[in-house]
Design goal:
The protein has about 260 residues and is an alpha/beta fold. It has eleven helices and eight strands. The longest helix is centred in the middle third of the chain and has 16 residues.
Length: about 260
């Protein structure tokens, strides 16, 4: 089983990227579980055609003892969709919410029941501490990739994520796999992202061009893989999905599971 975490600054397009990767892998016949680790709880909406997935934290608050059927939704291509959720505004720490959600999924044996071929963790990367670092430092993910653009704050957040991953590398936890450039048409964008990658001694593994196809599909609450399967953009996401599989390690043994 592959365990891949995709980080990125809020609003950079990591959830769109993650969902299209998941859809592309499902299209190949793989069983994929995508876990949204953002308190906005919108990681899996394109896989669910706009439907809001029940969150783990809401299910805990509402019923106290949720089952996997309460918190795992099936989306496009059989994708298994989970949203950790977050606390009510002003009442708690989003990072602690992710920790509680992970502990619940582990206690319920999600991996043992569904036996996914690939786990995709979609993680907010503005702050890499507490719950947001769970996939890095607690043995849930094995490979980390960062979605970034050529914008200054996006590259700054990417650098923080790389530093966080490497600070745990000696413990045998997740390794950093490279940048995914989600283009914003910033001046000299590809050069800026490449230079940032070189400075951090990593590489850009994919360049996703800015495309109206993405917005058109999102307006219909679909991934590009579903909404425009024959498009050039869909093939770019398919290529990225294949690259992540090739670059990621098999996570059998030694890693925690839900």
């Amino acid at each position: 089983m592959r365990r891949i975490a995709i980080y990125g600054k809020g609003g950079i397009g990591k959830s769109t990227t993650s969902s299209n990767i998941t859809a592309a892998l499902c299209e190949r016949g793989l069983k994929v579980m995508q876990v949204g680790c953002d308190p906005k709880s919108d990681s899996t909406r394109l896989l669910l055609n706009g439907k809001a997935a029940p969150t783990v934290l809401d299910s805990i608050r509402d019923g106290g003892s949720p089952t996997l059927d309460d918190i795992v939704s099936e989306g496009y291509g059989g994708a298994l969709c989970v949203e950790c959720g977050g606390p009510k505004p002003g009442t708690g720490c989003a990072g602690r919410g992710i920790i509680a959600a992970f502990e619940t999924l582990e206690r319920l044996g999600a991996v043992e029941r569904y036996k996914p071929d690939v786990m995709i963790y979609d993680v907010l990367g503005d702050v890499v501490c507490g719950g947001f670092a769970m996939p890095i430092r607690n043995g849930y993910a094995n490979d980390i990739f960062v979605v970034t653009s050529g914008e200054m704050m996006s590259l700054y957040a990417a650098g923080n994520i790389v530093s966080a991953v490497r600070s745990f590398s000696d413990s045998g936890y997740a390794r950093f796999g490279g940048f995914i450039q989600n283009s914003r048409n910033v001046k000299d964008e590809t050069r800026k992202v490449k230079e940032a990658a070189e400075e951090l001694e990593t590489e850009v593994i994919s360049i996703i061009p800015r495309s109206d196809t993405v917005q058109e599909c999102e307006s219909r609450s679909m991934t590009v893989i579903e909404g425009a399967p024959d498009s050039e953009q869909a093939n770019i996401y398919r290529s990225l999905a294949s690259s992540l599989l090739e670059r990621s390690k098999d996570a059998a043994g030694g890693l925690k599971g839900f």
